[in-house]
Protein backbone atom coordinates (compact mmCIF):
# COMPACT_ATOMS: atom_id res chain seq x y z
CA UNK A 1 0.00 0.00 0.00
CA UNK A 2 0.88 3.67 -0.20
CA UNK A 3 3.31 5.05 2.37
CA UNK A 4 2.99 8.27 4.33
CA UNK A 5 5.86 9.51 6.47
CA UNK A 6 6.01 12.11 9.21
CA UNK A 7 8.98 14.01 10.52
CA UNK A 8 9.96 14.30 13.24
CA UNK A 9 8.55 11.27 15.01
CA UNK A 10 9.08 12.92 18.37
CA UNK A 11 9.85 16.49 19.43
CA UNK A 12 10.33 18.22 22.75
CA UNK A 13 10.29 21.98 22.82
CA UNK A 14 10.10 24.87 25.23
CA UNK A 15 6.91 26.78 25.77
CA UNK A 16 6.63 29.71 23.38
CA UNK A 17 8.59 28.19 20.52
CA UNK A 18 7.21 27.04 17.19
CA UNK A 19 7.38 23.50 15.91
CA UNK A 20 7.01 22.30 12.32
CA UNK A 21 5.79 18.81 11.49
CA UNK A 22 6.11 17.42 7.97
CA UNK A 23 3.81 14.92 6.31
CA UNK A 24 4.97 13.33 3.07
CA UNK A 25 3.38 10.91 0.66
CA UNK A 26 6.33 8.82 -0.49
CA UNK A 27 5.11 7.00 -3.57
CA UNK A 28 2.01 8.85 -4.64
CA UNK A 29 0.62 12.33 -5.05
CA UNK A 30 -1.97 13.61 -2.63
CA UNK A 31 -4.03 16.66 -3.45
CA UNK A 32 -5.63 16.40 -0.04
CA UNK A 33 -4.06 15.65 3.33
CA UNK A 34 -5.64 15.68 6.74
CA UNK A 35 -4.23 16.58 10.15
CA UNK A 36 -5.49 14.90 13.31
CA UNK A 37 -4.68 15.34 16.98
CA UNK A 38 -4.92 12.60 19.56
CA UNK A 39 -4.71 13.18 23.29
CA UNK A 40 -3.80 10.28 25.60
CA UNK A 41 -6.52 7.67 25.88
CA UNK A 42 -8.68 9.60 23.44
CA UNK A 43 -9.54 9.21 19.80
CA UNK A 44 -8.32 11.12 16.79
CA UNK A 45 -9.87 14.51 16.24
CA UNK A 46 -9.72 16.06 12.81
CA UNK A 47 -8.02 19.44 12.98
CA UNK A 48 -7.94 20.54 9.37
CA UNK A 49 -8.06 19.51 5.74
CA UNK A 50 -5.05 20.55 3.72
CA UNK A 51 -5.49 21.09 0.00
CA UNK A 52 -2.55 21.52 -2.35
CA UNK A 53 -2.26 25.07 -3.57
CA UNK A 54 -5.04 26.50 -1.46
CA UNK A 55 -5.83 27.43 2.10
CA UNK A 56 -6.54 24.72 4.63
CA UNK A 57 -10.02 24.17 5.97
CA UNK A 58 -10.06 24.11 9.76
CA UNK A 59 -12.52 22.31 11.99
CA UNK A 60 -14.58 24.27 14.45
CA UNK A 61 -12.59 25.21 17.51
CA UNK A 62 -9.17 24.86 15.86
CA UNK A 63 -7.24 28.13 15.73
CA UNK A 64 -5.89 28.64 12.24
CA UNK A 65 -3.36 31.22 13.40
CA UNK A 66 -1.95 28.80 15.93
CA UNK A 67 -1.85 25.72 13.71
CA UNK A 68 -0.46 26.88 10.39
CA UNK A 69 -0.85 24.44 7.54
CA UNK A 70 0.98 24.65 4.24
CA UNK A 71 0.46 22.22 1.37
CA UNK A 72 3.01 23.50 -1.09
CA UNK A 73 3.33 20.39 -3.22
CA UNK A 74 1.45 17.23 -4.06
CA UNK A 75 3.64 15.20 -1.72
CA UNK A 76 4.18 17.49 1.26
CA UNK A 77 2.01 19.16 3.86
CA UNK A 78 3.40 20.88 6.95
CA UNK A 79 1.77 21.71 10.25
CA UNK A 80 3.41 24.44 12.32
CA UNK A 81 2.37 24.77 15.94
CA UNK A 82 3.12 28.41 16.73
CA UNK A 83 3.94 29.64 20.22
CA UNK A 84 3.46 26.17 21.60
CA UNK A 85 2.17 25.70 25.12
CA UNK A 86 2.04 22.60 27.34
CA UNK A 87 -1.63 22.06 26.46
CA UNK A 88 -0.55 21.58 22.82
CA UNK A 89 1.32 18.45 23.84
CA UNK A 90 -0.31 15.67 21.89
CA UNK A 91 0.11 13.05 19.18
CA UNK A 92 -0.32 14.58 15.74
CA UNK A 93 -1.19 12.27 12.85
CA UNK A 94 -1.57 13.12 9.20
CA UNK A 95 -3.25 11.21 6.43
CA UNK A 96 -3.14 11.51 2.67
CA UNK A 97 -6.05 10.82 0.38
CA UNK A 98 -5.64 8.78 -2.78
CA UNK A 99 -8.30 8.83 -5.45
CA UNK A 100 -8.65 5.58 -7.34
CA UNK A 101 -10.35 4.82 -10.62
CA UNK A 102 -14.13 4.87 -10.55
CA UNK A 103 -14.16 7.44 -7.78
CA UNK A 104 -13.09 5.27 -4.86
CA UNK A 105 -10.68 6.79 -2.38
CA UNK A 106 -8.44 5.68 0.44
CA UNK A 107 -6.75 7.57 3.25
CA UNK A 108 -3.29 6.43 4.26
CA UNK A 109 -2.07 7.46 7.70
CA UNK A 110 1.35 8.56 8.80
CA UNK A 111 3.06 7.09 11.87
CA UNK A 112 2.39 10.19 13.96
CA UNK A 113 4.48 12.82 15.72
CA UNK A 114 4.64 13.01 19.49
CA UNK A 115 4.92 16.64 20.64
CA UNK A 116 5.84 17.48 24.20
CA UNK A 117 5.91 21.14 25.20
CA UNK A 118 7.71 21.89 28.44
CA UNK B 1 -22.96 16.28 14.13
CA UNK B 2 -21.74 12.72 13.67
CA UNK B 3 -20.80 10.91 16.85
CA UNK B 4 -19.13 7.52 17.02
CA UNK B 5 -19.19 5.36 20.13
CA UNK B 6 -17.26 2.18 20.79
CA UNK B 7 -18.09 -0.43 23.38
CA UNK B 8 -16.38 -1.75 25.40
CA UNK B 9 -13.66 0.78 26.13
CA UNK B 10 -11.35 -2.01 27.20
CA UNK B 11 -11.41 -5.77 26.90
CA UNK B 12 -9.12 -8.45 28.26
CA UNK B 13 -9.45 -12.04 27.04
CA UNK B 14 -7.43 -15.24 27.16
CA UNK B 15 -5.70 -16.38 24.02
CA UNK B 16 -7.88 -18.35 21.64
CA UNK B 17 -11.17 -16.67 22.44
CA UNK B 18 -13.43 -15.24 19.79
CA UNK B 19 -14.49 -11.69 20.51
CA UNK B 20 -16.70 -8.89 19.23
CA UNK B 21 -16.04 -5.18 19.29
CA UNK B 22 -18.93 -2.79 18.81
CA UNK B 23 -19.21 0.57 17.10
CA UNK B 24 -22.26 2.79 16.73
CA UNK B 25 -22.74 6.07 14.91
CA UNK B 26 -25.51 8.65 15.09
CA UNK B 27 -25.86 9.76 11.47
CA UNK B 28 -26.49 7.01 8.95
CA UNK B 29 -25.51 9.22 6.00
CA UNK B 30 -22.06 7.73 5.67
CA UNK B 31 -19.96 6.75 2.68
CA UNK B 32 -18.13 3.97 4.46
CA UNK B 33 -16.98 2.65 7.80
CA UNK B 34 -13.45 1.60 8.54
CA UNK B 35 -11.81 -0.36 11.33
CA UNK B 36 -8.24 0.51 12.30
CA UNK B 37 -5.65 -0.92 14.62
CA UNK B 38 -3.36 1.35 16.63
CA UNK B 39 -0.41 0.07 18.61
CA UNK B 40 0.85 2.21 21.53
CA UNK B 41 2.53 5.39 20.31
CA UNK B 42 2.05 4.43 16.68
CA UNK B 43 -0.05 5.48 13.75
CA UNK B 44 -3.05 3.68 12.32
CA UNK B 45 -3.23 0.47 10.34
CA UNK B 46 -6.36 0.00 8.29
CA UNK B 47 -7.94 -3.40 8.86
CA UNK B 48 -11.22 -3.41 6.98
CA UNK B 49 -13.27 -0.90 5.04
CA UNK B 50 -16.98 -1.44 4.42
CA UNK B 51 -18.68 0.69 1.82
CA UNK B 52 -22.12 1.99 2.74
CA UNK B 53 -23.70 -0.40 0.25
CA UNK B 54 -22.00 -3.44 1.75
CA UNK B 55 -22.97 -5.55 4.73
CA UNK B 56 -19.65 -7.08 5.69
CA UNK B 57 -16.00 -7.53 4.89
CA UNK B 58 -13.61 -10.29 5.85
CA UNK B 59 -9.85 -10.47 6.10
CA UNK B 60 -8.27 -13.53 7.63
CA UNK B 61 -9.50 -13.89 11.21
CA UNK B 62 -11.31 -10.55 11.07
CA UNK B 63 -14.89 -9.99 10.00
CA UNK B 64 -16.61 -6.63 10.09
CA UNK B 65 -20.31 -6.09 9.62
CA UNK B 66 -22.27 -2.94 8.92
CA UNK B 67 -25.92 -2.17 9.56
CA UNK B 68 -26.17 1.32 8.22
CA UNK B 69 -29.84 1.84 9.01
CA UNK B 70 -29.36 1.12 12.70
CA UNK B 71 -25.97 2.86 12.85
CA UNK B 72 -24.02 -0.15 14.03
CA UNK B 73 -20.93 -2.09 13.11
CA UNK B 74 -19.17 -4.99 14.73
CA UNK B 75 -15.63 -6.28 14.38
CA UNK B 76 -15.34 -10.00 15.03
CA UNK B 77 -11.92 -11.43 15.81
CA UNK B 78 -11.64 -15.19 15.71
CA UNK B 79 -9.14 -17.24 17.69
CA UNK B 80 -7.51 -14.21 19.28
CA UNK B 81 -3.74 -14.11 19.72
CA UNK B 82 -1.46 -12.02 21.98
CA UNK B 83 -0.30 -10.17 18.87
CA UNK B 84 -3.84 -8.89 18.45
CA UNK B 85 -3.39 -6.73 21.55
CA UNK B 86 -3.85 -3.12 20.46
CA UNK B 87 -6.44 -0.38 20.38
CA UNK B 88 -9.11 -0.83 17.73
CA UNK B 89 -10.72 2.27 16.30
CA UNK B 90 -13.71 2.55 14.06
CA UNK B 91 -14.28 5.58 11.87
CA UNK B 92 -17.07 6.66 9.55
CA UNK B 93 -16.53 8.77 6.50
CA UNK B 94 -18.97 11.52 5.65
CA UNK B 95 -18.95 14.26 3.08
CA UNK B 96 -15.66 15.90 2.18
CA UNK B 97 -13.73 12.74 3.06
CA UNK B 98 -14.05 13.62 6.73
CA UNK B 99 -13.42 10.74 9.10
CA UNK B 100 -15.05 10.73 12.52
CA UNK B 101 -13.42 8.32 14.94
CA UNK B 102 -14.67 6.51 17.97
CA UNK B 103 -12.59 6.50 21.13
CA UNK B 104 -11.46 2.96 20.58
CA UNK B 105 -11.48 -0.37 22.35
CA UNK B 106 -8.24 -1.32 24.05
CA UNK B 107 -7.83 -5.06 23.60
CA UNK B 108 -5.48 -7.24 25.62
CA UNK B 109 -5.10 -10.89 24.70
CA UNK B 110 -3.39 -12.81 27.46
CA UNK B 111 -1.18 -15.81 26.64
Reconstruct the topology from this structure.
The complex is a heterodimer of chains A (118) and B (111).
Chain A: E1 4-7, E2 10-13, E3 19-25, E4 32-38, E5 44-51, E6 57-58, E7 67-73, E8 76-81, E9 90-99, E10 105-109, E11 113-117
Parallel strand pairs in A: 2-11
Antiparallel strand pairs in A: 1-3, 3-8, 4-5, 4-9, 5-6, 7-8, 9-10, 9-11
Chain B: E1 4-7, E2 10-14, E3 19-25, E4 32-38, E5 44-51, E6 56-59, E7 62-67, E8 72-77, E9 86-94, E10 98-101, E11 105-110
Parallel strand pairs in B: 2-11
Antiparallel strand pairs in B: 1-3, 3-8, 4-5, 4-9, 6-7, 7-8, 9-10, 9-11
User: What structural category characterises the helix and strand content of chain B?
Assistant: mainly beta
Largest sheet of chain A: 7 strands, mixed
pLDDT averaged over residues of chain A: 91
State the helical fraction of chain A: under 10%
C-alpha geometry of chain A: globular
Estimated structural class of chain A: mainly beta
